[in-house]
Write a structure and sequence with these properties.
The structure is a homotetramer. The first copy, chain A, is mainly alpha-helical. Chain A contains 17 helices and 4 strands. Chain A has helices spanning about 20-25, 25-45, 50-60, 70-80, 85-95, 95-100, 110-145, 165-190, 210-220, 235-260, 290-310, 320-350, 355-365, 365-380, 380-395, 400-405, 425-445, and strands at about 150-155, 155-165, 265-270, 350. At the B-C interface, strand 1, strand 2, helix 8, helix 9 and helix 10 of B face strand 1, strand 2, helix 8, helix 9 and helix 10 of C.
Chain lengths: ~450, ~450, ~450, ~450
Amino acid sequence: MSARIADSAMYGHLWGTPAVRAVFEESARLQSWLEVLAALARAQAAEGVVPAEAAETITENARVELLDLDLVAEQTRLTGHSTLGLIRALEQVLPPQVHQHVYVGATVQDLTDTWTSLALRAVGSEVWRDLRRVEAALLDLAERHRDTVLAGRTHGQPGAPVTFGWKAAGWADEVRRHLDRLREGAPRWLVGQLGGGVGTLSALGPAGIDVRRRFCAELGLGDPGISWLAARDRVAEVGAVLAMVTGTLARIGGEVYELQRPEVGELREPTRDEVVGSITMPHKRNPELSEHLDTLARLARANAGVLLEGMVGQHERDGRSWKAEWVALPEVCLLTSTALQFAVYLLEGLEVDREAMLGNLDSYTGSERALALLTPRLGRHAARSALQTALAHGRASGTPMDVALREAGLQPPEDTGASPVDTGAAGAMVDLVVARARAARAQESQTWP
Amino acid sequence: MSARIADSAMYGHLWGTPAVRAVFEESARLQSWLEVLAALARAQAAEGVVPAEAAETITENARVELLDLDLVAEQTRLTGHSTLGLIRALEQVLPPQVHQHVYVGATVQDLTDTWTSLALRAVGSEVWRDLRRVEAALLDLAERHRDTVLAGRTHGQPGAPVTFGWKAAGWADEVRRHLDRLREGAPRWLVGQLGGGVGTLSALGPAGIDVRRRFCAELGLGDPGISWLAARDRVAEVGAVLAMVTGTLARIGGEVYELQRPEVGELREPTRDEVVGSITMPHKRNPELSEHLDTLARLARANAGVLLEGMVGQHERDGRSWKAEWVALPEVCLLTSTALQFAVYLLEGLEVDREAMLGNLDSYTGSERALALLTPRLGRHAARSALQTALAHGRASGTPMDVALREAGLQPPEDTGASPVDTGAAGAMVDLVVARARAARAQESQTWP
Amino acid sequence: MSARIADSAMYGHLWGTPAVRAVFEESARLQSWLEVLAALARAQAAEGVVPAEAAETITENARVELLDLDLVAEQTRLTGHSTLGLIRALEQVLPPQVHQHVYVGATVQDLTDTWTSLALRAVGSEVWRDLRRVEAALLDLAERHRDTVLAGRTHGQPGAPVTFGWKAAGWADEVRRHLDRLREGAPRWLVGQLGGGVGTLSALGPAGIDVRRRFCAELGLGDPGISWLAARDRVAEVGAVLAMVTGTLARIGGEVYELQRPEVGELREPTRDEVVGSITMPHKRNPELSEHLDTLARLARANAGVLLEGMVGQHERDGRSWKAEWVALPEVCLLTSTALQFAVYLLEGLEVDREAMLGNLDSYTGSERALALLTPRLGRHAARSALQTALAHGRASGTPMDVALREAGLQPPEDTGASPVDTGAAGAMVDLVVARARAARAQESQTWP
Amino acid sequence: MSARIADSAMYGHLWGTPAVRAVFEESARLQSWLEVLAALARAQAAEGVVPAEAAETITENARVELLDLDLVAEQTRLTGHSTLGLIRALEQVLPPQVHQHVYVGATVQDLTDTWTSLALRAVGSEVWRDLRRVEAALLDLAERHRDTVLAGRTHGQPGAPVTFGWKAAGWADEVRRHLDRLREGAPRWLVGQLGGGVGTLSALGPAGIDVRRRFCAELGLGDPGISWLAARDRVAEVGAVLAMVTGTLARIGGEVYELQRPEVGELREPTRDEVVGSITMPHKRNPELSEHLDTLARLARANAGVLLEGMVGQHERDGRSWKAEWVALPEVCLLTSTALQFAVYLLEGLEVDREAMLGNLDSYTGSERALALLTPRLGRHAARSALQTALAHGRASGTPMDVALREAGLQPPEDTGASPVDTGAAGAMVDLVVARARAARAQESQTWP
């Protein structure tokens, strides 16, 4: 029985992807914890801390399907200890003589932090792949619409022209910076944890450091050098980067949301025939995907904030920070991966209405071109002033260009209508961004890290 | 399969209470939605908008166990519409001639917002009851420990004496203010929503306002006067008040956490024999309840922040704000109710160590008393200065009182040791706070609102 | 030299009002602190704790213009003590025999918290007045535009009609709830603080409680019953309420921002001739006021979050929470008061374009009316289905009504164009909201609290 | 007149450093804007867009002390335009024929964003230097106290031993990761902005891209490739990294705060003789620096949150996000630099009490050693169980070791007292962390970027 809408049968798809759910779901988490325990035993066997046969037996039995999960849950609640239930259930399936070789010298956080790194590796790999798909879709839009003209807008007001490809290139460039952040962060984030009670590896004797190195290597993680039980900057950074990713997607979604207003009508998100926007207002086509990107970003930010706050922990372990992570870190991962999948769908199917873009540009802007036209005749200051006066009084009767010319007592030059819209270096910037993104894509791995 | 630790079989009890889970759990939500639909039909029947028999039939069939929940989920996902799945499943169990009388003139938010108010009524009633239990426990501590002396502490440093009852009274007074906030908020929060598509009740003709009034009355909710589809201040306020409640509990928890340090040893939270603090460090008795109150408060604040941000919605419905509420509002309710139950357990079983309190007071404070002793002999400025000098140099060799007297070349007056510790008006403040709380409790309802 | 843009000569007006700046400005704060010290002396004189002449002398000299402010600053920095600089500077202007009667039995927070309440009283009075001005402007809009029809919008998409007065009434109702919150909060918030070192009033002997009562009465504040040095819920609540106020104003601003898009063109914020939206795009008329309301709300929320976090303080004083308040509380007050002044100006001068509203309604909506027209001929389900199909394929060629009729093979009934737009109970809701607001306004004080 | 305590003569030093104040102070900002304008003119001259003499004249006159700052402020407020006041004041001091060559093709954000990058370079250079000083102090502590034993603490409870050097090494390692983040972020953050009205460089004709490249090079900034007017991830990332830096410092401060409790007494922050902790409680020595680190981190987080939220901007410029940056970005810079200076002072003068550390270890821990002692005699499970029972009942009468032995009916082996405390691999981890930090320090620049 889930009390969270995130796991609702009706709405759960809005708050998680199957792949990332599968990472954080309880039995998967337990399986991963078991694998961490097995890796620990093998590392210890290699260093002579436990017998090799014990490590083998543990590895063979480190399978969640063998465990009595009710016992795990019951013992966890009974003891109030985060992993003792698991240990007891595991001991149940192991021969007695192996019991003493399970979880030797380790502490709860050795399990949970190492698991966190493993989970982040899986999540990061999803994020990397989907972020690259978002980038691919954006680069494609950038190229296809390199010269698709529309009004640039500042403060919500249409102004001088830009191209839609240039917009998309700006988004793609932002996404590329996130890919850079992920790449740079990986070696910082993907490290194991092994230290025992307070983090000194004291229960492992002189072999401690070597066991840790092998343990991390067994799991494909980096060695941290020093225990990081209360050093949560890694986790905070992951939260910040993922929240930033959702911020970018929310920005893209917001653009679609606004430009899909029928009064603007320049963009439209893809839909399926079965989708019902409103029962009573059948004409409505709601930008549900786009707006949901914003919803997800809000929640991601809130959870990232919890992780950031969690950096200020006390001593060698602070349960306050740490348990807040238990909620906030999976949450930000789930939200981000969901946002990415929505964004891929949105961008791969985005409908761009070139006529509407051009129409709005003509209808609502043009003063820049009018200014350019008037300046050589009236001088820069006088032209601007004439144009402002004209626009203030005559807005209702024509486009800014019409008004400006009429009020300034000028005839439109023959070529006014035909003059190409000047989008400056927009195309050149698109080329630059696309080229460097394509070069980076060609060089980098399709998988992360 | 839940990917949220909040629903984990192992750890779920840390993140929700059975009673509040039961409010937000999917089939309970659907049942409540059905009851809202039935109330709507009855209100419409009373105003002649639908036939009385239709309302009766709908009411009889408004039972979640009759519905095909798979169909609900499937149609919800298929149409992307938040309630169409439910409507279709309900229609399945209704005679065809009744179909057209279901959900007449209503919109999704009429269902969800009205349900939210019903859910808040249920949650608020839990919160009210448990907050009063917390208050009762605190008043009891205040009375029992009215004269239990311990060091007051500022900036983490022990100073002049206070009493533990006075501390508890300060907490109780804060809790009382939350009860006031809940009482004042109730009529603002517990209102229905009915408006149809954009909120004007247009589909109900002239009867609209009357249908709404009856509809709200049927459900025991207030009439809102005007649709509040995009006016989310109520929800934001609920979030803020609940987050403040958790803030108070976290403050109490923090006090226990700090005073339970064995170096201080003045308080100890209750525990059970089965609880295992640390496998490798058996002496450890961790303040798990206390620290968890802080964890819950962090998450509650983060979700309250989402609700506050959600006030800035667009137009007649803003899916960005609204869907973020779907997650954040239940979350803050679940977290708060959990915190309250932890706090009740903590406070009802709190162990207070009077000897340790007195011992710390003697060992680490006393300069105020020393100052009082020296002032008549040396004058106020000279006494303070002498004392500071003495303390700076002689800290290691005795209590502040010893040091001060010795360094000032004075003999301890005979009555130094025996002089009662002066806790000023602490007792009088306890009496005042307890009296007004008890008076308020006697007058108010044990249930909310 | 200010490093904060908030105090910039160029931009400072965006971040504070003169009246609220005057509350928090350093010499005003010091003057208020001096008055608190004087009130303390008078209360103590009345209870026989200090001589009446000393209290008189202190009261006469409690004038910031008499003090050496450089000394205050220097001694504050030198000692690291928040008020010792002030005490020393005050002693400088007092006869030596009075020195010992200054600040007797008080602590820093007695001064700063009591001052906070005094400052909040001044700020709250500004907020109350301006919030009522906002309400008045909104009620006026509600009445004037009770029947001004425009498209309701959900998810950014125009839908069934509403009236602009109904929108304004919804805002007004939200503002009224804030006025209720301010009224209810006042007795909780406006209390003095007096307790000495750790809050027990121990330095005042048996007179302590009576001195506190007189002290609070002298300043027109409530008596708190018990010291609240570390009970910061009052401050957190103030922050939450003010942040909610800014949230409402940002919502209104957001509506103007969106409806001022020239493609929509339904609202326009007032401007002055001298305002320059863009140097290079003279036609642009940016919704600067409206967007700034959102900016202010973001910052207010962030600061309110700091105050909420600050509730979790330790022991009898926690400098971490407390000093964060020093920044965040004035900030949220300054931001809110600024937002209110912007909002008053915005709403009192708001331009409403009835033609544009009607034009958009015709152009972009109508499916609800078409549905009403088709339903009697085709039945409810078939009508909806026909309409959806028609709209999906024929959007470009006419209004939803045109398309629906044409695709359904029907002739427009003669009265289609003339049929009044159905805004349901919008007008009735306006009447209800306006009536209750006017009744509340008539009964309540124009000043706060 | 400043209404912000941040600029108070009494308290301003708590909220800003002189060096970072000097970056953000108004005349410095205007000077930097002027230099940006001059660099623009020179870049344009080099590309033939403006005459070389105009660029020279502009460069010569780009000095804030020449401008009428009252005019700047007045015109800014009058026009509501962020830079028009500056342009008009600059034109006043330029020959008329140069006016038209000022600010050619640029927009407000070209100035402000480019200035932001310049300001960040200056701030980052301060942060880099001070963060390295913090690291140096920590490495020194790590080495000096490599073997200084104290109790590790989890959940606030003393447990198995660690060394203080190992704690410091953990902090140092976290600081090193921040240095890595700063180094990696630099090329992303330190880029110029030039695009004109909507960002396409259209006013500069075919030379646009080249002008931008030269413009950035003139200022020592990177070329962004594409305009980033609404792409605020850079700014959000800076905020996140700086907030993380303050989080680390707050963590260190929190450790000092807690370990400075006299009941613990293991650490003490440096102080000066003149500092007065409490007037009435002269013995108190408050951890003011340490607690202030937490205060600063809270505010930094709140401001970083505003920057993160600001990523979701609309179109080509969103004043809501952007103006919130005006406040939040300088704020987070000021707070971080202040925190760093406090931290340097704190760490360079930190007093470490080895005896107190050892004393607490003996008094409050030891069960791990007792367990090690009992295990060979009783077996692992029985030993743990015996120890737990003993500790639960006998806590008051001796150290955990005493209790355990007595209750288990054993005599202390002769070497109990003398057996060295086992801090496991703590020393080895210190060596590892120090070595890699020193290697990194040797290779990297002392200046940033």
